[in-house]
Amino acid sequence: MIAQRCLVSLTFCACYLASYLMNKYVLSVLKFTYPTLFQGWQALLGGLLLHVSWRQGWVEINRDSRSDVLTWLPASVLFVGVIYAGSRALSRLAVPVFLILHNAAEVIICGYQKCFRKENISSAKICSALFLLAAAGCLPFNDPQFDPEGYFWAVIHLFCVGVYKILRKAWKLSTLSDIDQQYLNYIFSVALLALASHPTGDLFSVLDFPFLYFYRFHSSCCASGVLGFLLMLSTVKLQSLMAPGQCASWVFLAKPPAGWARRGLAGFLRAQGLLMTVVKDGDSRVENTMPWPQAPRWSIRKKNPRTGSPSLPTPCQPACCRDEIACHGLGRTLWGLWAVADGWPALHLNL
């Protein structure tokens, strides 16, 4: 039992980390800012995988009555608000900033339990909610990349998350399991987001997306959907094996690595040239239109007549061209490590 709990907990942390970073890569690096299509695709893929798992007997989904489905409909609408607003906010905010604002949803839950349900809440939980509120309130004044629209959607996201959790705890439907609720969420999300794609303009604007026919974009979208589905399953399994306090502890442990790995992963993906324009036969529409910071300017000295190898560069000339040091094995490795460590794009290094 202990080994099973550890395995499920580690799986949850890995899926949590990979899911956020993959979504951030698609939204911010590839600039796929069409939330109705992106979240609709994730809900569709998650629903199909959950349906296949049910048919194979891996999970159990009950055939619910119409009254139960209609009762859960407001929660499904809130779930659509959670994923839509979260996608808009994550595309504009850094992962650590988004997670801090996401945690502030606990303040809404704590306030509801204290003010409306008159529950006895420990002083430690109240202090924790106050710290979360203070951290979220200080962010706009200390964020060097302050984005008003990103914070606007983050506030809507945390409000929807808080109300969604309150509804789940208030109703406590015995006939609807966690898998049943998520299955209904997937169905309503696909329907609502598909209907909203035309009024929001995403349905036709996506035709101008520069990476629409880029295979790395397709694989990233598929990976994000699969990771979201695995995260949902691991969350349900974790909640069934552990107490609510232990689940909250594992969620807390899973969030810091997402913030730490964001910068390194972004630099690694760029250093590997994932966004480098690759023009092949039939790929003329793939263009890199995003502005990137300029790489440091370096000059390449002539070869040493004794050793026959190029000397170390000095700041003078841009290293964007195909010179000797960029094609040299050691220089290529050093440039790649520097790009990964500092998070700069290595699009012009041709590594």
From TrEMBL:
Stretches that traverse the bilayer: 69-87, 124-144, 150-167, 183-201, 213-233
Protein name (database record): Transmembrane protein 241 isoform X1
Main subcellular localisation: membrane
InterPro entries for the chain: TPT_transporter (IPR050186)
Membrane topology: Multi-pass membrane protein
Places the protein is found: Membrane
GO cellular component terms, A-Z: membrane
